[in-house]
């Protein structure tokens, strides 16, 4: 049993942290709108490590002006906390905050075995519970099993480009030459260095990224799934990070790393569950076709070059496509929409993203950094027109670095949008 005195001391120090959040200028995150304060469900924020989950919860609770209690289990003094100690934690919370608070924020609780039993018990007392976690123990599948639908899942990614500009005080509305140049410089920095909040003002970005990836692989995935061949896991992770926006060829990975196809698929699934990568499914009305040919994207562009032995191709088009996909995941979350890619069976022409409401295609989006050449322009627009006819969708968008304008191709209107303008929309 844990000492009540130690727990009380830790929680008292953590209570002081809340005051710091009330004085900070914090970036507004899109995911703030996904919280349901009046709900009887637990508000569960999950995502990749260091994406700002704790800060997000503190921000929405503080701005809502509600009295809330705070417990951060990611403290070395609470490292061996057991299920039976959680009641002592609750007693200490009542001693520090009184018994009238209605909101309780449990930060990084997933390392305590049986945490969900504790949360379920608190929900039955009409407390509003906020929970964060980045460890692979706190995943959608386990949430569904343990909380039995009594949760509102909010996925948080690192900064979007809009949030990145807000953090760095970039003028996103100015029409002067200087303001335009500043946005373009910020765009190049963003697609190279990414949006992890803590990394923004660091000189040693490489050290930060390497430690982050190592923590995800060893502390999250290895520990959660009891992986023995960690070296193989690291190699597969490195390969997928270096080859983002590509189809995952499991047979090729199996041959390359001398592992069974089944093991490779498990490792890729673990990387996805820890939010290091995001998979994109092929659009098809046949389920057997949707389970093959997934594409892999990284959760943040800053992971690609800021690593040892990184030889990722300097392809701005792929980097832009990766950024657009993660942005689409943010935007589609609030409307419960799905994102796929489309590949025409006979011609092999692809459309990067298909936004769907159930089985209805709402928008087709093609991404190409450079469409200045006639060849590139024809390739991208023809793929959109062909998919438009097959999927019966006339809302066509082509995201490029060029200026925003509308064009007509074979009777179809295509909205060409500047990448910077689209990302800031």
Q: What are the defining features of this structure?
A:
alpha/beta, 16 helices, five-stranded parallel β-sheet
Instruction: Please outline the major beta sheet.
Output: 9 strands, mixed
SSE order = HEHEHEHEHEHHHHEHHEHEHHEEEHEEEH
* Count of helical regions: 16
**What percent of residues are in strands?**
15-25%
Mean of pLDDT: 91
Low-confidence stretches: none
- As laid out across the biggest beta sheet, the strand order is 6-8-7-9-10-11-12-14-13
> What structural category arises from helix and sheet content?
alpha/beta
Tell me the overall shape: globular
Q: First CA to last CA: what distance?
A: 53 Å
Fraction of residues in helices?
40-55%
Give the beta-strand count: 14
Radius of gyration, in angstroms, nearest whole number: 23 Å
Concise description?
The longest helix is centred in the middle third of the chain and has 21 residues, at 205-225. With 425 residues, the protein is of the alpha/beta class.
Could you characterize what this model shows?
This protein is an alpha/beta fold and 425 residues long. Helices cover 44% and strands 19% of the residues. It contains 16 helices and 14 strands. The longest helix is centred in the middle third of the chain and has 21 residues, at 205-225. The protein is globular and about 70 Å long. The termini are far apart. The model has no long low-confidence stretch (mean pLDDT 91).
